[in-house]
Amino acid sequence: MRSFLLIVSLSIFLTACPRIRKGESRVNAEPVATNGWPAGYQAWSKIHPSTLVPGPDETKQVARELYVQATPDAGVGTVLVKELYAFADGAKGPLQSVAVMRRTGGVDNNGWEFMAFDPNTKQKQPEAQCVGCHSIQEDNDYLFSSLR
Ligand code: HEC
Q: How far apart are CA 18 and CA 118, in angstroms?
């Protein structure tokens, strides 16, 4: 009797379980973007990043690419993505970091949120003084580059 009850309750449990439908896969080819990774940014408009201060130290130089998805007035919803590539002997090396400015409309920094990602894991990198540096451009909406 006991084992009968066990089988009945087990089969109820199993039927109630969500099933994976045919052709549906639970395995994602890419890490899931849940933490602010700007998915698909390479299809956005590409603009030339203006370089204000070329690094005096060769090893600290980077090659940059800048991608933008902007509302007409660069308002809430605008996202800027700066890729930083290693740069040595005049040549672009591997992609090292993906820096993101996202206008979320918060009270600080004209509503810009700053974050950086490891391009391989798509995980957040420790934010290295983003605002400290960009605030020297406070009069220009915290931007170094022109979005137009
Ligand atoms: C030492 C100063 C400095 C720091 C720190 C810094 N940035 Fe920047 N950032 C710049 C400069 C200069 C530019 C202009 C483009 C260039 O020269 O690379 C720029 C450009 C950008 C852009 C393109 C829009 C624009 O303003 O031109 C984004 C997005 C960006 N940075 C995000 C970040 C994030 C996110 C962080 C923190 C993880 C960060 N930055 C930290 C100096 C800095």
A: 34
Please report which confidence band the pLDDT of residue 83 belongs to, taking 50, 70 and 90 as the band edges. very high
- Interval between CA 14 and ligand 1 midpoint (Å): 53
In order, the DSSP letters of 3-64 are: HHHHHHHHHHHHHHSPPPPTT--S--SS----SS--TTGGGSEEEPPP-SS--SSGGG-EEE
pTM of the model: 0.78
Residue in 41, 61, 125, 130 to alter for ligand 1 test, most ligand atoms within 8 A of Cβ:
130
147 ligand 1 Cβ < 6 A: no
Q: What phi and psi, each to the nearest 5 degrees, are found at residue 33?
A: -90, 100
